[in-house]
Specification:
- The chain is of the alpha/beta class and 461 residues long.
- It is built from 14 helices and 22 strands.
- The chain has a 6-stranded parallel β-sheet, sandwiched between helices. The chain has a 5-stranded mixed β-barrel with strand order 18-19-20-22-21.
- Strand 7 and strand 8 form a beta hairpin.
- The radius of gyration is 23 Å and the shape is globular.
- Bound molecules: 5'-deoxyadenosine and iron/sulfur cluster.
- The site of iron/sulfur cluster (SF4) has 10 residues, from helix 6.
- The site of 5'-deoxyadenosine has 12 residues, from strand 16.
Amino acid sequence: MAQKLHIKTYGCQMNVYDSARMADVLAPLGYAVVDDAEAADMIILNTCHIREKAAEKVYSDLGRMRQLKAAREKDGGRMIVAVAGCVAQAEGEEIFARAPFVDMVFGPQTYHRLPEMVARAHRAGEKVLDTDFPVEPKFDFLPGEASHPRAAGAGAAYLTVQEGCDKFCTFCVVPYTRGAEYSRPVAGVVAEARRLAAAGAREITLLGQNVNNYHGEGLGGVQWGLGRLIAEIADIAGVERIRYTTSYPADMDDELIAAHRDVEKLMPFLHLPVQSGADRILKAMNRRHTAGEYRRLAAKLRDARPDIALSSDFIVGFPGETEADFAETLALVEDIGFTQAYSFKYSPRPGTPAAAIGEQVADAVKGERLGRLQERLNAQQLKFNRTSVGRVLEVLLERPGRDAGQLIGRSPFMQAVHTEAPASALGSIVRLRITAAHANSLAGVTVADRPSAFAGERATA
Ligand code: 5AD
Ligand code: SF4
């Protein structure tokens, strides 16, 4: 009888991808994915450790899992509860101490070993802990065929090409939880992209913590950068859109910038976290770029692709950040003009260098700065969205909307677009005339591919 598997995913896109691949690994063991945690025989929490709030959410959810498991055992049944991902990697054994009913704790580099771990957990209720960084790359051992869509949405798939980070920004846990940088060889990536396209993916988002530093073994033995990899994937029939995330400013090389000019399928959108606009703070963060370099990079990207939409991440209240430093962040925002952005209060993470700096900024000051920054970023986003009204944009319809008969998709610039369309249109790219702009989304109506009003203008049929 099929076992039921429930996976709850927290955090970034790579966790979404990882959850899908865990489902792939467990499918041959008879596990089928279900939405309902209560019905599950195994629950995996695929966790995020980036900020304190994300990590604490896991422990509060574990409280609920404890109740589900107790209810199951009362009825004489069994339920395996597992904590995976970055909290598992960072906290390891500590999780068993805080939540003794948890059966398995395993880090992001070990999920190809899941069948063996599940077998051990089943045997006499053994507790399983695996937070190794194994020498064998997990990608060599994961099944090729997907049992579960690696989905950003209908018609949109994630594909991890690079993992880990060697940058050691002083605020960030990623180098500790995801480990050292690793780039997958091109052949495996291209084979996976072909499978995704054959399974209906129109859009592929290449993932990596530092994706633009991709340097995988190419076809023919030489190393390839991300620009070259993107050009190769663009040749795959069925792939109509390519994106990549997340990028590190100092790693944007000329080949990749040129791809934004030359590869039509590469979408005119780039998420390029800057974190701060003050050189003093960037230095304390161990970022290997200045605010000036970031401005020049944005200009170069716009030379290559004039309509490129830029997105970013910001941290406010990094230790030692003064009002003058923060003013430089606001100045950078004004200069660049972001079409969307994420901004966070600095959250001290155990074991990272910045957490040990004496001059922490008061929470009230962080909150006040975050409010001012978000007001500017929201205004820029709305202004950009308004420039879309009246334009025709190609939109990949990815998910049902709140109202019946409504679907939501993404424009080339990553804007969410609502439209009336039948469910059968999910996963397809349609042309929409944008009729309204809101802070976080657009509304559009279908335009016929060859509007009859223009039919007479064509010289031939
Ligand atoms: N505190 C607040 N924000 C953080 N980020 C990473 N670490 C921290 C932290 N300790 C933010 C950065 C990064 C994004 C994914 O999360 O802006 O780009
Ligand atoms: Fe973290 Fe990104 Fe810095 Fe790496 S480059 S340490 S993932 S913020």
